[in-house]
Specification:
The chain is α/β, with parallel strands linked by helices. 51% of the residues lie in helices and 12% in strands. Bound molecules: shikimate-3-phosphate.
Length: 194
Amino acid sequence: MDEEPSTNITPLRNIVLIGFMGCGKSTIGRELNKNLGYQLIDSDHAIEEQTGKKIPEIFAENGEDTFRALETKLLKDMIKQQTNHHILSTGGGIVCREENRALLHQLGFVVWLSCTPEDIYERTSRNSNRPLLQCDDPMMAINNLLNERTPFYEEAAHLKISTSGLDLNEISCGILESARYHFGSMPEPTDPPS
Ligand code: S3P
């Protein structure tokens, strides 16, 4: 009998948050960290730490492609290190690369947090740390990027939750309930909560 080819894919049991800028990934990541005890990794923060540069600096000095390559490297490193029982909050554009969408799946249960363009505008207009929205018409940029990315979020996600009009606790409970169902159980964290 032929042996199964080795695919080197180990299903990991992380909770991965994807979604557009301003849809609440960081806030919900912190809430899940509090409720579940899994350590939180924020991909933007991790890249800033690794490069010693802020995201707008990376975009301005090295370009968006370099930033996207850093995102891919981060996902690959997490898989290589078999990072498990963590919450990963990702940058809004991480789904744009096909390769990343497959890597996100390998990392665990992928939750797409969505909200209305109006909520995104309202939440992102408070600061200037998102290079893709620093333009004359941020609302148009939001709508264009949303149109472009929605099929990618759909493809990458196991679960979609709208964060418009729901409170933090409802969202967190919904994610945990679905993650338990997806994994069959929810193992204890291996590290103490950060
Ligand atoms: C980006 C989203 C940002 C950050 C970078 C690019 C995007 O993260 O990764 O500014 O392309 O949507 P947040 O979604 O956490 O704002």
